[in-house]
Amino acid sequence: MILKLSAPGLRSRDSVARLVLIPKGPFVAETVRGDNPSSSSAAPVVSRRAWQALIVLLAGMFMALLDTTIVNVALPTIRTTLDASEGTLSWIISGYALAFGLALIPAGRVGDRIGHKWVFFTGLALFTIASFFCGLAQNDVQLVVARVVQGLAGGIFVPAVTAFIQLLFPGRVRGKAFAIMGAVIGVSSALGPIIGGLLIQAFGETDGWRLVFWVNLPIGIATLVAAAILLPKQSKEEASHADRSGLDWIGLVLVSASLIALLVPLIEGQDTGWPLWTILSLVGGALLMVAFGAWEVAYTKRGRSPLVPPRLFSHPAFTGGVILALVYFAAFTSIFFTISILWQSGLGHTALESGIVSIPFAIGSIVGSSQSNRLTQRLGRTVLIIGTLLVVVGLAWLWLVLLLTNAADLTNWLLIAPLLIAGLGNGLFIAPNAQFIVATVDPREAGAASGVIGAVQRIGSAVGIAVIGSVFFGSLVIGGKTADAVATGFTDAAAAAMVVSLGFAVLAFLLVFALPRRTNTGH
Question: Where's it mainly located (predicted)?
């Protein structure tokens, strides 16, 4: 298509400028100025429909990541309503995160083969159905099973979000789309406790926790309708370039068994007094992880496509970046697990009051996320250093407040400043961290690297909750039946748990230095 724009009052041929739009699919056109399209470097024009598709995709991601934290404020209510054990509370969070992480890589592979539209649609539909059954649960076992299915469904459709951004947004516009996605990740996680608290406050403790899950139903249904209309199908060109090799099922079974064997004793060990089976399970999990690594190497040598390409870990910086993702998300997602249980079970506050505590963190995350892309372009890796350092400072301050303040004097006002600082750091870190880790590998391996990072982030969340939950309940000693004794016991346990979260954050800060100083987000 050629549009001729003539300057008024001029008749020379030079007065005619041509705007050439070279179609690049139904969503993108490359803008070229002048008579020689191939010589121009003008920025691509992204269609309105592409941005509408991004809204649909991010609505699904918002829902999946909201569920990683919205449940935190409902845990004390679930515990009393369903008579759930301490281990069950950890499973509600960790089971979701673990299933989510394990589904990410194979789901991405399936999307490459059959098209990401229907993988996104199927996963989102399953997530919405599982959310309905979470709210219907009549006992803790039913709830944990429904949560695991919900996490599995989230892991199925979330990889399609990043895949579509790669397909729909070229060049520098892609960096902007990823920045928006990063902001959604940070904001959805931060807003979870507030929304959960409002629902429980409005509808009561008996049924309010069920609406924490059912809030997904209208969002899910609307997003499904929009996805069917707005998301593009797989083109013939994309289908011809898709990896047609079979899925590495043995690798998937080995890594799943390893992580479950490691996670179960971390969650159940405290409740059961750390019997022999918990130690054997931890050892077995470690051995299965070694077997998984050996299998992936052998599978690659046979010319097959492994679940996790071993060559990625030939880059020391990538290995450090993967550990960074693991430990940071272990620190980040465990903060409000600790605060929610302390605020409600220990100090006797409502779910809404517990949710309000997280508002400074949410505000900080929103502000940090909004500036992260601009600061990354100017400062490079330094933005991640600043982000993790702010998280360390915020958590250290938070720990000191819990450690030194009398439980009877503990109010949300004392937590505003440390949570705001930690939230700012979280916002600066969440959006650009995956880009920097991916930049440590060959561009041809970027897709596989992104899948590994996403899985490790969710696994880090699961491990963090398992460890923090074990420390929290293992440290919980109540020296009497009075309200002051209960508050003191829970505050001391929260301080012990928070220092572990702080340790994860300090390790994350040190690991940032393994990443490259800069990454080119324009390609």
Answer: membrane
Instruction: Look at residue 492 in the predicted model and tell me its pLDDT.
Output: 94
Residue 356 within any structural domain of the chain: yes
Same domain assignment for residues 144 and 39: no
Give the pair of three-digit tokens for residue 483.
């309200």
In this prediction, residues 4-31 reach a mean pLDDT of: 40
CB atoms under 10 Å from CB of 37, counted, come to 16
pTM for the whole structure: 0.80
| Residue 183: per-residue pLDDT | 74
pLDDT given at position 89: 86
Which domain CATH number covers 334? 1.20.1250.20
Range of the domain at 8: 2-44
Q: Give the Cα separation of 163 and 179 in Å (integer).
A: 15
201 domain residue, yes or no: yes
Q: Which residues of 433-444 are buried (b: 16+ CB within 10 A; e: fewer)?
A: bbbbbbbbbeee
Non-local CB neighbours of 208 within 8 Å, separated by 6+ positions? 74, 77, 199, 200, 201, 202, 351
* Residue 20 banded pLDDT, cuts 50, 70, 90: very low
Residues 6+ apart with CB under 8 A from 246: 304, 305
Laid out side by side, the sheet with 16-23 consists of 2-6, 16-23, 28-33, 44-46
In a domain, 40, yes or no: yes
Q: For residue 66, what are the contacts with CB-CB under 8 A and spacing of at least 6?
A: 188, 189, 191, 192, 195
C-alpha to C-alpha distance for 104 and 157, rounded to whole angstroms: 8
pLDDT higher at 143 or 270 = 143
437/386 same-domain check: yes
Residues 367 and 483 in one domain: yes
For 183-208, the pLDDT digits (tens) are 787 678 778 888 888 898 888 877 78
Bridge partners for 46 per DSSP? 28
